[in-house]
């Protein structure tokens, strides 16, 4: 694998969170997940469970599949 899915997921989560104008603390309060846990996800240090992906998706009002839509676009030659 020439990419780090945890890192890419974390960056995508940051984008989704910031699109709501939320801090990590606000996302933690809204989702019921610990702020330190969310920080670890955003830094690419946590391998989160499917249930937590669904919780985050519901909290951020996106589909679970959108949560996993973090792969960079490949350049077409």
Determine the strand fraction and express it as a percent band. Answer: under 5%
**CATH H-level superfamily title:** lambda repressor-like DNA-binding domains
Secondary structure: helix percent: 55-70%
Number of strands: 0
Elements, N to C (H/E): HHHHH
SS content category: mainly alpha
User: Low-confidence spans: pLDDT under 50, at least 5 residues?
Assistant: none
Description:
This protein is 60% helix and 0% strand. By secondary structure, the chain is mainly alpha-helical.
Topology record:
Layout: H1 5-19, H2 24-31, H3 35-42, H4 50-60, H5 64-67
Question: Keyphrases for this structure?
Answer:
mainly alpha; 5 helices; 434 Repressor (Amino-terminal Domain)
Summarize the structure in short.
The protein is mostly helical and 77 residues long.
């Amino acid at each position: 694998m020439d990419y780090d899915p945890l890192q890419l997921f974390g960056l995508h989560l940051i984008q989704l969170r910031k699109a709501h104008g939320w801090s990590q603390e606000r996302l933690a309060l809204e989702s019921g997940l610990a702020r330190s846990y969310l920080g670890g996800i955003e830094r690419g240090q946590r391998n989160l469970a499917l249930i937590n992906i669904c919780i985050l998706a519901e909290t951020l009002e996106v589909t679970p599949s959108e949560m996993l839509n973090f792969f960079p676009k490949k350049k077409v030659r």
